[in-house]
Predict the structure.
Amino acid sequence: MDDITLQPEPFLGGYACAFGDTILSEITDMALISVAMPLNGMDKLQASVQTLWGVVLPAPGTCATTLDGKTRLLCQSPDSFLALLSDPPGPAMEGLKGAGYTTDQSDNWVILRLSGPLCLPALERICPIDLNTLSTDNFTRTTMEHLGVIILRQGPDDVMLLSASSSAGSFLHAVETSITNVKP
Amino acid sequence: MTQSNRIKGGLIDRSQQLGFTFNGKPMQGHPGDTLASALLANGQRLVGRSFKYHRPRGIFTAGSEEPNALVQLRTGAHQEPNTRATTSELFDGLTAISQNHRGPLEFDLMAVTGLLSPFLSAGFYYKTFMWPKAFWEKIYEPVIRMSAGLGSLSKLDDPDIYDKGFLHCDILIIGAGPTGLEAALTAGRSGARVIIADEDFVIGGRLNAETCEIADGPGADWARHATTELASMDNVRVMPRTTVYGAYDHGVYGALERCTDHLGDSSGKPRQVLWRIYAKRSILCAGATERPIAFGNNDRPGVMLAGAVRTYVNRFGVAPGRTVAIFTNNDDGWRTASDLAAKGVDISAIIDSRNQDAPTQIADARVVMGGRVVDTSGRKGLTSVTLANGEKVTADCLAVSGGWSPNVHLTCHQRGRPIWRDDIAAFVPGADLPDGMIVAGAANGTLTLAAGLADGRDKATELVKGLGFTASKTPAIVAQDEPADLSAFWHVAASRKPAWLDLQNDVTVKDIKQAHAEGFRSVEHLKRYTTLGMATDQGKTANIPALAIMADISGKTIPETGTTIFRPPYTPVPIGALAGRARGSGFRPVRHTPSHKWAEANGATFVETGNWLRAQWYARDGEKGWRDSVDREVTMTRASVGICDVTTLGKIDIQGRDAAEFLNHIYTNAFLKLPVGKVRYGLMLREDGVAYDDGTTARLGENHFVMTTTTANAVLVFRRMEFARQCLWPGLDVHMISVTDGWAQFAVAGPNARKLIQKVVDCDVSNDAFPFMACAQTTAFNTTPARLFRISFSGELAYEIAVPARYGNAMMGALMQAGKEFDAVPYGTEALGVMRIEKGHAAGNELNGQTTATNLGLGGFVSAKKDCIGKVLSQRPEMMRDDAIRLVGFKPVDHSKQLIAGAHFITRGDAANMANDQGWMSSVTYSPTLGHSIGLGFIKRGHERMGEVVTATSPARGGDVQVEITSPHFYDPEGGRQRG
Amino acid sequence: MIINHPLLGPRDASEFVYLGDASLINRPDPDAQNAAELFHTYSYERANPAGEHRELWYHEQGDRSWLVVTRNTLTHAITEVEMARDVALKQGRDR
């Protein structure tokens, strides 16, 4: 075998840019796994999630965050969840074995963080969702400029935006353009 | 030029001068002016020529309903035709030119068309189209194109940028006149989320144009205070320069905000923003539009709506004339007289069509009750008006008021129909309003001030309560209702001269009569026959008088005659705003393959495949064209080894206890018994039995599969499988998630593929340990997780290896490095296509939505032992007949000939017609392996006709080629290479 | 249009993909004597009412639920939105 070690490259090269006090940056140190609930498997999955993260399975469209704030569990539909992890996905996938069907999704998504005073005005240009109704620590899923996006609100002016990794460049362009267009 | 008509007062900032030009002539105005008010201040009455007859025209209104004063604004690429001078805010350096004339505006060479007016009347276009045909292209069309029309386009790319956006509110208030402001204050104070939008750049609507009082002060001051209070509320968004142009389903509204149109330069910011507003409720407070009275030569510059005259006098400090006459059928016209008198403007006469006492006294003004204006004089601007008794009254401005029509437009965008109210002689909103909308104030026929304020307050209170807010208890404000008596009067019948209705499209009373005489009596016919209301102003000032006249002629009432349907947009929306950012490369998202950077650095030419950009071929120095590169890539792959990024194929991760059973429903062939560690080709049908998609599915674990789909159908197949899972077999335990973007996948193909792959992975890939159609989860280059599949699209010994997408770029480089000793070559989609045709694999050209499994020669893949989507209907006799078309190969008898995709097959010697058609060529390529052109195609009973020569004919693309029917598997038909 | 998703609340129609008549849930029994006839009707014959219509929408840019939306095709008024899976289960569909 050749003596080569492959190095991962962030989808946006670890992009970070300040627009005044507003900051847009690529998050490269988080992992994502999807967790599907087996048919009639609510109790078993709940038990595993409780053991693993100490949270109750969230209802569709809502999010549960662990006490240490390191893991968020997003309920995407009645039987599927997305776990956003600050740690590598291996242990979580191992911990859910037999209770949920897991898939490592880390490479399917690019993650942007947008924070600062232009956060909401910029999103107003691309996001059809009423962010007024999206409270901190909650998420929703919608489209922006034809791209599917998960929005996770981390604070009044602080969101995480997840979109497909193959179109990361177009997505970044959409968000950057919005900021530029609303920047005074 | 001095501002000769500037008078005292108004909401303009006289401390600043703004310079602008009209037809090159320098002029001055002030901040707060519109182009129209500045032109009038500078004494410029003639501003354009009419559409058909090139009649001199002036400024007719002071708002967005303007039919006449359309100008070409700005220059170069920024040039914008058909801009209403009445809504264009003046800025320093503005340049405007008049439209629709040849030669100077004052001496339009086309004005002679006026003499041809008998030939240009109603139905002109229809009649002219009819006869004689030969004249149309050569004579009529060029002449009409030259003479008729509006401004011209720059024909350059629009240099401005546009944006879109989304807003949400509890209550959207459309229009910020007295009613809208009072409604917004009421709703805002209750805590509801409010958006109040107005097309004007100064909030207040008619309050800025009238001398009325609210709370014992000028109405304009009250509007300013109200705006300040609203702006201070966090829950209220005040949007001036914003037109709500359409009411759509379920409380969705379209609005256009003009962000930088009032500036000399947009400084790189969006010029306009097209908003989609989601409103739980809305209050339409769009006000009313004044309408004219039709009389002879009523289109001369200087003839103006009475309310507009007040706007110019009160809001802009401009006298539209030195000697003004007034022609009215209502009390409102008299307010014009009192306002003009207060500013010291000379009033020559007040002509009131009503036979009653004068409602008020205006000092020094002559009053003619029961009067009529029958004609006007003045070649390029009004000099006098003629009364019914022949008497001429001097006037350089005639203020006309025929009453006010509520702006019901948005109430009708969901097919609502307005209803007629005799007391105000106007249509008001009907009962069938768009979801969540109510109407208040003048838009609802409540035309007076105090009543309008109260209506706004009451309706807002009702709405906020309905939404669960507590209405504020602020006391009602003090205001007076103005006199508003009116007696319907539309048209001076005694006029002998043409009387205009639609000023922009040059439609006269005579045209209405002619339409009636020729049988075009329904309003919808009237509109199309005369072009009434079809101009950029959509007949805002013209439609109601025209309807009234049609009603009169046909002996019907106005409500019986009805209105045409109002459709969005309320006022024009630039195409640029509708496009927003979706221009050029911003038209749609681009998807990059994981090895895109590597491909870019290594000379790839890219091709769009859906949203994907894929490497099409990799050119090397000395190669003269794409064929050289592609032939080399194929030859080197078949000789040693080639590498291709195949990430774009759809990848679906499927898990669950019933995953295998689920796949049995989806695919025609059986998957229940596919062993773990194996891959199987699968075919999908549509429920009607036609072939849909194909790909391979690997079993990674007992309950874990990964499916590939074609690139084009990745999204569609996933959607369909979710439908099957949720709606058809909801009792199965199966889950899917797309992993297309998650894995970078590479085909490694060629006789040296095994040697290369063995350098990459740590599992045994010998033919015994890892035979054809095997799969495994392994690692690449020691540490990177990888999936390995032994599948082949090229017909070679081949593998596909997948690593997490972030490693994809490095993986491509590493594979090439590892392959160096074998002279490994990267190949693109063209070489991929060549090799799949050589191998005889069906692709999109063959799975075209018309072909069955039998046609494709894949009948054996439809399992007889189980059901699947499409199974039952695929077994219909017609779908399986023996003489049906079959997928076979074709090669030219003369190897030097090139085959043509899309050619149809006919028996040699037969005529090339539909009756003799036997099938078609679906894919062709030059085969560098065989040294001649080859093709795949469908021909009747093809599988029984090997060796037969037929004619492939392509009349459209030239020539017949004699082709021999062969097996579709041109290359290694026994499959020894891929299995070896 | 706005579709009031049973779990996620009001959502813009642009997040959804339209399929058609909700009768597509009622896939016939492939083993029935007259299966070909039943499937023919299922695949090709649909009512196209001017008025109330039960139709399938897919929340592709959301939770990927298939929904049965009862919508008036004349007014676009939506009177009911159900999870299609629940409808299918209620109608006895299983595996």
